[in-house]
Write a structure and sequence with these properties.
455 residues, 3-stranded mixed beta sheet, globular, binds adenosine-5'-diphosphate, binds magnesium ion
């Protein structure tokens, strides 16, 4: 990519970022960055550590959101500091003169950031976390740890696949503790950062201060701990830090993409330590949770998104919540920038690549077979007009699952059941939804079926 193209991309992204964060913040922070591409790697260049830290702590989400919205395929971006300014941690006067009402608060927070280099995203709180079946246990565990100051579960170990809300819950815990109990020293950092700081302290020969820092905190949160697998010296250090903190009755919260026992490349003693406290997993999202999350996100946008489009996204983007948010942001960006009306066709068009990546090959026939197997019904019966209660109920469930797990239209689904019309499918879907609401056993049957089809 040449420089002009890079500038074009960044200019477009900047327009969106300005919309997201307002003119003032944009002028103060984002307009000072450069977008650089070097040896196939893209990053942002800030002119001081201070600018980098503020941008990283406050505006990263918006930057990523904007870049994704204009079609850049990224989940994160580095911010680097211009060489000459590498060590200027003291903010230049002009950068502190934030002409907003919030400026004082901001300044204080920024000071905090510079001192601690650990960032919290203020949008990642318990309030913005949507709870559903797949994450209710992890949520409850996180709440419990955040609310009580006696250390009951140590460590709290949160695990689950990419983009399912682990980092969100950790930030939420940190915010909660910071607000409720500001004197408690909370440190949140990624395992990579932990490693980096450790290695740096060895190089600078001040590993004592590294140790002291970590041994002096009340709550330590280490995100994505799987990254320290294989790094023996860091593991060793982590293990000792861990033990010291536990012995002193400090809270530790750890996240990973796997359960403690599945963490390959991790020393046995560390694995077993990590599994000691409360282990809570986040399961892959369900249709209902995705719908809930989308509904809570669209409330914040001025643009009206038809419910049909929201349902469409919840059906189609199943990989993880981050992609789901990305899809929504892209739709909103398109409609804002080009003024295009939001419809299913528009979404299909704008999200072509994402939709392809999320394509699942679940056919109506596969659903029918699974349902027949589960209820012991003959395949020929489910596509017949038999009204025997078991057959009829199985047929309704299969229609319902076809509706939520495929993108087939109602008439198409009807046709696959021996030529029923779309009204029959609508009725079946409604009936099954009602039964799910009022009959727990029925609901769990449908859930088990749905899972077995999705996997
Ligand atoms: P992980 O750390 O597990 O990879 P994140 O916590 O970074 O995932 O979540 C990815 C994105 O999805 C974040 O923007 C987060 O706010 C959002 N998200 C995940 N789960 C939920 C939820 N239950 N409610 C609201 N937003 C969520
Ligand atoms: Mg994470």
């Amino acid at each position: 990519m040449n420089n002009a193209e890079m500038r074009g991309i960044w200019d477009q992204a900047c327009k969106l970022i300005e919309k997201y964060i307002g003119k003032n913040s944009f002028g103060n922070w984002i307009s000072k960055l450069e977008y650089i591409s070097e040896e196939g790697e893209n990053y942002l260049l800030a002119k001081s550590n201070f600018v980098r830290d503020v941008v990283a702590s406050r505006y990263m989400n918006e930057i990523i959101k904007a870049l994704q919205a204009i079609g850049e395929n990224i989940n994160s971006i580095d911010i680097r500091v211009r060489q000459a300014a590498e060590n200027t941690d003291i903010p230049p006067r002009e950068e502190l003169d934030e002409p907003e009402d919030k400026s004082k608060r901001l300044q204080e927070e920024n000071k905090d950031v510079v001192e601690n280099v650990f960032f919290l995203d203020e949008k990642l709180t318990f309030d913005t976390f949507v709870v559903g079946k797949p994450n209710e246990f992890a949520y409850a565990a996180a709440m419990r740890v955040a609310e009580s100051s006696d250390v009951r579960f140590n460590p709290l170990f949160l695990y689950g696949g990419v983009g399912l809300g682990k980092t969100h819950l950790m930030h939420a815990i940190a915010w909660n503790i910071k607000c409720k109990d500001p004197v408690r020293r909370v440190t949140y950092l990624s395992a990579e950062k932990f490693m980096y700081l450790f290695v740096k302290s060895l190089r600078l020969k001040n590993s004592m201060s590294f140790k002291e820092h970590f041994r002096n905190i009340d709550v330590l949160m280490i995100d994505d701990v799987q990254f320290i697998s294989g790094k023996d010296a860091t593991q060793e250090e982590f293990f000792h830090t861990f033990n010291d903190l536990v012995e002193n009755n400090r809270q530790i919260i750890v996240s990973a993409d796997k359960s403690p026992s599945d963490l390959n490349g991790m020393e046995e003693r560390l694995k077993s330590r990590l599994g000691w406290g409360l282990v809570a997993d986040i399961h892959p999202s369900t249709y209902e949770l995705r719908l809930g999350i989308l509904q809570s996100k669209v409330k914040n946008f001025a643009i009206k998104i038809p419910h049909k489009v929201i349902e469409f996204l919840a059906v189609k983007i199943t990989s993880n919540i981050r992609e789901l948010e990305g899809a929504l942001n892209r739709i909103i960006a398109h409609s804002t920038l080009v003024g295009r009306e939001v419809t299913i066709e528009m979404a299909q068009d704008v999200l072509r690549d994402l939709l392809r990546a999320n394509e699942r090959f679940i056919t109506i026939e596969y659903i029918q077979k699974k349902v027949c197997e589960y209820y012991g019904v003959k395949f020929s019966d489910i596509i017949s007009s038999k009204r025997n209660i078991v057959v009829a109920r199985s047929r309704q469930i299969a229609m319902y699952l076809a509706k939520i797990l495929t993108t087939k239209s109602l008439p198409e689904i009807g046709r696959n059941f021996g030529g029923k019309d779309h009204a029959t499918v609508i009725y079946a879907v409604k009936k099954v939804k009602e039964l799910i609401e009022c009959d727990r056993n029925f609901a769990s049957d449908v859930e088990v079926l749905q899972k077995s089809i999705e996997n």
